[in-house]
Amino acid sequence: MKKEPLFIAFSTQKGGAGKTTLTVLMASYLYYVKGYDVAVVDCDYPQFSLKDMRERDLKNIERNPHLRRAAYEQFKRLGKRAYPIVGSRPDHAVEAARPFVESETPPDFVFFDLTGTVNNMGLIKTVATMDYIFCPIAADRFIMESSLKYAGILNDTLVTTGKSNIKGIRLLWNMVDRREKTDLYDIYEKVIAGMGLEVLKTSLPDSKRFRKEGAEEGDRPLFRSTLLPPDRTLAKGSGIDALAEEILEIVNR
């Protein structure tokens, strides 16, 4: 019996909340470190951020002996190539994922990098097909107001009404400044609970490491890549491993 891939999206209405970075980090961690099969649908039309990242990664590996060696050793260890990334308009995302779903060996997860607009019926239909949505939030008034409005609309119109495939929406604290007083987070979490929403136990720090990609030369460690997992040294304290484990527990994989 063929396995049923889970459709997962890191999605929010506010730009700059980190959804694209989280998509690639989770896809790469689950694929290269945990051994799950993954596919990604880049719906960031028309710029296609993840497809562009894949092209940069390929160029850097081609020109950088250090990265090329790391990629070769990884291929020998895993015995499989990089996970696929396809671009799609947001309203055609499910159709773009269909070849993966209907293949002889479908992936465990299909990640969707969705835009946050909820006033487009085509996009709403795509969002409704997701199994799980993880909405990054930050202790910033504009990000919080936008993200809570977005998550609240999805929860009220799609989840609680049963008019979607969504099994759960979880909020994720991202870009957390450990020096800030926790009172602010406590206040926000009371508001979130009052809306009938849940927050993940894992939170991710505000750290420059999340922006570290590969380069055409040098042996500096990378964190964000579509072809390699996060460097182990940089991964320590990042929360990525804990986030992956919490998500796997939620989705029962």
UniProtKB/TrEMBL annotation:
CobQ/CobB/MinD/ParA nucleotide binding domain residues: 8-216
SUPFAM superfamilies: P-loop containing nucleoside triphosphate hydrolases
InterPro entries to which the protein is assigned, alphabetical: CobQ/CobB/MinD/ParA_Nub-bd_dom, DNA_Partitioning_ATPase, P-loop_NTPase
Protein name: ParA family protein
Organism the protein comes from: Phocaeicola plebeius
Lineage: Bacteria, Pseudomonadati, Bacteroidota, Bacteroidia, Bacteroidales
